[in-house]
Amino acid sequence: MPWHSLRHSRHAFGTHAAMFGVNPWKLMLWMGHKRIDETMLYVQFAEVHMRPLPEGIIAASRGYDDPDRRIISDAERTSKCANE
Questions:
Q1: 5-35: pLDDT as tens digits
Q2: 36 and 13 part of one domain
Q3: Are 24 and 36 in contact (CB under 8 A)?
Q4: Which of 25, 29, 38, 52 is least buried, going by the fewest C-beta atoms within 10 A?
Q5: What residues contact residue 60 under an 8 Å CB cut-off, 6+ apart?
Q6: Which domain holds residue 84?
Q7: How far lies 29's CA from each of 26, 50, 53, 76, 81, in Å?
Q8: What is the DSSP string of the chain?
Q9: What φ, ψ does residue 62 adopt, rounded to 5°?
Q10: Same domain, 7 and 33
């Protein structure tokens, strides 16, 4: 995969994680940033470009207050569906 494609995928991941409400400190660890101000660029971009979440995503996250758990639970649900 070309470097620019990896870079775009990385930026997309960081931006979408911020849009879904992942804690900036946790996102900093996930992204491998050394300083929080690097991560806050994703958070600030996400805040400016926020749109309402689709109802399907809201429904899948019901019962999970922690945004990190919502992402994990959705991934678990997706992998269970793939294995069936």
A1: 777 788 888 988 888 888 899 999 999 999 9
A2: yes
A3: yes
A4: 52
A5: 70, 73, 74, 77
A6: 54-84
A7: 5, 23, 25, 21, 29
A8: --HHHHHHHHHHHHHHHHHTT--HHHHHHHHT-SSHHHHHHHHHHHHHT--PPPHHHHHHHTT--SHHHHHHHHHHHHHHHHH-
A9: -60, 135
A10: yes
Q: Under the phi-then-psi rule, with left for phi > 0, alpha for psi from -120 to 50, and beta for the rest, what region is 52? A: beta
Tokens at 75, concatenated: 């991934």
- Supply the pTM of this predicted model: 0.55
AA letter at 19: M
The tally of domains found in the chain comes to 2
The answer on 79 and 59 residing in a single domain is yes
Quick one: tokens of 79? 């992998």
